[in-house]
Fold these 3 entries.
Entry 1:
Amino acid sequence: MGRKVRVAIDLGCYEFKGIVFEIVDVKDTIHVLAAKKEVAGGLDDGKIVNVAALKKQLSQMLNALSEEAGVEIDEVYLSIPPSNAYQNNIVKSAVVADSSGSVSLTNMHVSELTERILNEIKRKSENEKYTLIDFFVNEYSFAPDSKSPLQIIEKPEGVSAYSLGIDIFFVMGLNYVISTLEQIFEDLYVFCDKITVPFVPGGFKAVPYKARKEGALYIDMGSSFTNAVIFKNNSVIHSYSLPIGGSTVTTDLIRAFGKTLDDENLQLAEKIKKKNNNLIIEADDSRRNVYMDRDLLSDCFLTLEQVKLIMRERVEEILNLVKEEIKKNPSIDTGAYDFEQVILSGGTAKFVGIDEVARGIFNKPVKVATPYIDSGVSIEELNSPEYVTVYGLAEYFAAGMRKPSLNSGFLQRLKGKLRTIFNKRKGDV
């Protein structure tokens, strides 16, 4: 059997991050062969504004990854900016009992009910501008008889039941965005097999099973978006995206220095942010100057204390917005927020001291996640909060995380048809 080599690409609003990985024999395990980070092209606040530029950028990334890893790339997993999608839950149950009043649940029962739910989602989206791109099972439930309420169960197979219930979390992507991306990769002779939004694979990677069971708030702090997911009982009970991120810290610095918002000043402010990425105020910070101009004799400077305060105040605002969004959901216990800890990831989570800032806001234990890279090459940069999504993307789809086996569903048939067409097209070249 040949090597199972894939590419995962996280289409961020500011940067594209990609890794080439091999799926090893041990289930749920991947081995990173190469990594690449590029400035985003063809997107504006996550929206496709220039197809040609996007295609060029993706082509360059794929070629660079292929050359560095020394392998041919023909399949990609993708995460798209959350502005191009929406997500929700759907819960359905069905009587499965035979004439005896109960039946031993099998994978076929699960598969048939799952397919019915997915077909319902598909029918409801036909008149909208979205298409189903991802789903997973939040939880299963069953009732032993017609008079009993549904009870949550981890594995339904083999359980004697009168009825079966399934809670599915699903993601819908904008038709235009999905079709455009699929066409781009088809033109590049790469099969775009799986697509989702960043906080789904990021959440499963960053938040351990025990934390998802007990309750955890996962916050993916990107450049233009901050995404949050609340896990409880190993299920997603709340998720949302806020159109604010680390790029606002950069623009805050430009304004504080009295500069205009142009590309050169954005680059200079970004360098200042990365060089002084510490939110903790220290004693001598008020005596150290930070210059935005290259001329150190310029009178245009801020103290390091001022720079840190500007960055800290914006980070505090972002985290407080997440906290306020949680309070808006009536299904969540706003007294305890229904979670036991907070886990951060994303480029903005690289700030030293951000865990301390988050603890002060949520009054909960806080951890900054990294992807714990397993690689045969030296890629120390990858073991960083900003790579949690792309690494999680690889594991999420490679392992088929929490996805039931559909024996005859429309997604399986469609996938087989697309793969046949793709292989034929590639073989004709």
Entry 2:
Amino acid sequence: MHPKGSKNMSKAAPNPPRPRRRRRKSPPAHLTPWRNRLHEIIFEADTRLGKAFDVGLIAAILLSVLAVSLETVDSISARHGEFLLTLEWAFTVMFTLEYIVRLISVGQPMRYALSFFGVVDLLAVLPTYLSLVFAGTQGLLVIRILRLLRVFRVFKLAQYIEQGDMLLQALRHSRYKITVFLLSVLFVALIMGTLMYLIEGDQSGFTSIPRGMYWAVVTMTTVGYGDIAPQTVTGQVVAGFLMILGYSIIAVPTGIVSAGLMQASREEQPISTQACPQCSLEGHDYDALHCKHCGAELNPGS
């Protein structure tokens, strides 16, 4: 005979709930043939058409920046103002169409739009349209000069890109030390500015603590404008001490960045100038098959 409750105990215990499996992100869809061809022309410089497009784009950027600069000269603007304005709008419309085509030719347009070059390309056309509402914003069009950074990819100057990446990596490694250094300089400027305000006062031009901090920063950086100078002996002694301190301060960030550069050089790996067809980002290894940013294939057609 079974004891009481044995019938219930003989029932199988309910299985524990299975943990949900994380859905794997599906790989980005390949571009259609015409979009892939468009991407090859616009983002790559390995083909004849791609290089011709980039060289023409660089020439247009230089001419547009030159036109904006000449428009600020009064004598030239008085004679050729209408022509320069027409030229400016022509370049803006051309760059706007190019920006739209770039968005079409990548698999993930939003990633390109939020990337460095995507933001620069957008800012290169916005000032002209903003000038319809806010006067004087055309001068911001000189930001188009940043688009010339593509010249390193166009002419296959990959070694310069590698050195630039190494410098950025060194700054990333040293960012905490640089932050501490800048805060220390700020504290020294605050203390010295306050001290000079108490010693010199309004008679010598130290009318406030922020004014004293301005003098301290100018003195520490060895600029020495001369618009404010201590008149008392005590103030001159403090100024001399701050000048000597300024020379020692200049050496600190040099050592920090140099150490970061040495660390980055040990981690250096050769990179290619190929752009991802999905997110348009660069900086891949020469033997890479997939994008290190979004995971898409770099050469889907091969």
Entry 3:
Amino acid sequence: MTLDNSTIIGILSEYPLNTITATNPFTKGAVQTNILIETSEGKYVLRYYRARPPKVVPTELELLEHLSKKGIPCQEPLITKDGKDHLLIAQHVAAVFKYIEGDHIPPDKLTNSQLKQIASLLAKIHNETISFKPKGYEQREIHDRPYIDSQLGIAKKAAKKEKYDNSKSIELITSTLDSIQVSKTLPYGMIHGDYDMANILFKKGKIGGIIDFDDSSYEPLLFDIADLLKNYCFRSQKSFNLNRARFLLDEYQKIRELNQTEKKSLYDIFLYRYCLFSTWTLAYAPPDKSGLQNGLTSMMRRLPLFSNIPREEFYKAMFS
């Protein structure tokens, strides 16, 4: 369903907002429908969860409410006039959030001070979400090996339908997954699930807030830490920056120290998460005219930059 203006106004009338002066849809990062709402008293975001079953969204909203109360700068849901944190519109959830001002900064433009803030914020989030189980958390997607295998099946079907070859990428992902093990004793909690520059906003050199908990789930906290390294430590297509990875981990551990199982597992978890994101690209990114899928080539080139680092060398570089 597309939200027309009358529907938008109807949703907003349920909230204690002052005069609405403008509504403008966001055009980037649009898995869900996001609309900027400008009022006489400030800005808000209306999110319509068109790609999420209604039963799983309240878990995310409860997580955001929990983090907001703990002082984490995230998008706190507004409460309706009837005391609810969401509405059900045409079989999908709609919610309004406070708007966070700020800009995205690419990894190669970040200062050490900003990198420190990024790592520290993740540790603070984990301190508040470890073992935290909001209502309905068990209904969120769990990104285990069977899940990845199911997504690889979707990728194979997509390639067959559109007549392009992704078999080498699937073989690389499968062989990488077969070579690793995920410990069952890692600390669990509600993770962000997409700890990336696109979801961290800076204002005047400081983090203004973190957004988009749409992929949050109850899984090993180490998943987020692996994403932190994946998203901030590659030097383009040239190498994996071990020094930056160590810096980020040191800053994280000043707030939340990793246990020995987490330290020993980080190498495998990094490869695991990299394979997960590569699989999503395989399954859902449309191929270009040459038959290549957007972003997949660079992802496949980067994977060996990390996997060619010996496991013990990585461990010593990070934790010695």
